[in-house]
Amino acid sequence: MTDQGKNLPKDADEHIAELKSRLGQNDECGTTHYNLAVALLGKQEYVEAEKELHEAIDCSPSLAEAYVLLGGICLQRKDLEGCYRFNQRAVKARAGFAEGYGNMAFVLLQLVDGKDPKEDQEKVDKAIKNLKKAIIHNKNFVQAYTTLGTAYFMKGLVKEGIKANLEAIEVQPEFPVAHNNLSVAYLEIGEFDKAIIHCDKAIELGFEVAQELEDELAPHRKA
Question: What is the mean pLDDT of the chain?
Answer without folding.
Answer: 93
